[in-house]
Specification:
With 304 residues, this protein is α/β, with parallel strands linked by helices. It has a domain at 48-109 and 149-219: TIM Barrel (Alpha-Beta Barrel), CATH 3.20.20.190. It is built from twelve helices and twelve strands. Helix 1 (2-15) packs antiparallel against helix 2 (31-38).
């Protein structure tokens, strides 16, 4: 009976309101998407858990969704981003690439084949050709009308949410193939630069970003713990992306002592309650996940 009541309450929220720290906000999912999600028990459960997570006001770890909420919608689409915003995550991880005519779109793979009904490299097609494709049909017919999002409309979506919601969400930008100026200009225009992080490893791109936006929060990958001092002292990153297998209290404490946060991807065999609990206890700052509920369940078990 208690579970049924919880599911009913959450279904009402999905149909209209988002919930933040005990009060409703003006953020709304599109009605059709809200109705679709209300029919999915796993989403209703996840939403209920995240409501509790935020209401506790003392989350012990930051939550990033990999390629947006790809568990419930096609990855890197506006629908997946809208769902991530409804779940009140801290970061939406997304991948930025360019078309043949140098327009910035959100797509993980270099090729269109896996997540659209197109073929070949994105860099070989113009913007209009790319936007004519479906980016959601492969996932579920419900999402057939989803397009490959532009960088600007993705930024506009987050900006609108952040104006209305008590919980702010920012981008975790994987700089796959970027125009640095276009990226930074969009983040500045939509007031997202200060809170977003940029996963970037190419020295040339880091230099381009720093020349335009010296205070941009860069997030290089850390291939070896031996490189921590060198990277921290030369690049002065906001955070480092560390391989899950390399996480240790010594590494995390050392990074924190230098004012550097630690992010890591908890995917595949690492995406389980025990692994997340261990990482949280080690002091990790942000976990990027494909399944938000696992973070909630790990936090609940730690707090008991």
């Amino acid at each position: 009976m208690k579970l049924l009541l919880t599911l009913t309450i959450c279904a009402l929220f999905l149909a209209g309101n988002s919930y933040v720290s005990g009060k409703t906000t003006e953020f709304r999912l599109p009605p059709k998407l809200a109705d679709y999600l209300a029919s999915k028990p796993e989403y209703v459960k996840t939403k209920a858990e995240m409501m509790k997570f935020r209401a506790a006001k003392t989350p012990v770890v930051g939550v990033a969704v990999h390629r947006a909420a790809n568990e419930f919608a096609p990855e890197n689409t506006l629908a997946a981003m809208q769902i991530a915003l409804d779940l009140e995550v801290d970061y939406i991880e997304m991948d930025v690439r360019q078309t043949k005519d140098c327009k910035s779109l959100i797509l993980h793979d270099g090729n269109l084949d896996r997540t659209t009904n197109g073929k070949g490299p994105l860099k070989d097609v113009n913007f209009d050709e790319a936007r004519a494709l479906s980016a959601g049909l492969w996932f579920d017919p419900f999402y057939a009308s989803e397009k490959i999002p532009t960088l600007e409309e993705s930024c506009a979506l987050l900006a609108d949410h952040n104006k209305k919601s008590g919980h702010k969400t920012y981008f975790y930008v994987d700089c796959k193939d970027i125009n640095a100026k276009v990226l930074i200009d969009n983040l500045i225009q939509y007031h997202l630069l200060e809170g977003s992080v940029l996963y970037i490893n190419k020295a040339e791109q880091i230099d381009q970003i720093r020349a335009i936006a010296p205070k941009a929060k860069i997030l290089p990958g850390l291939r070896s713990g031996k490189d921590l001092n060198k990277i921290a002292d030369t690049l002065h990153p906001y955070a480092l992306d560390v391989n899950w297998k390399d996480l240790s209290k010594e590494l995390i404490d050392k990074a924190h002592a230098k004012g550097v946060k630690i992010f890591s991807d908890g995917f595949g065999e690492d995406m389980n309650i025990e692994s997340y609990q261990k990482a949280i206890k080690l002091g990790i700052d942000v976990i990027s996940t494909n399944k938000v509920s696992v973070i909630y369940e790990a936090v609940v078990k730690i707090s008991k």
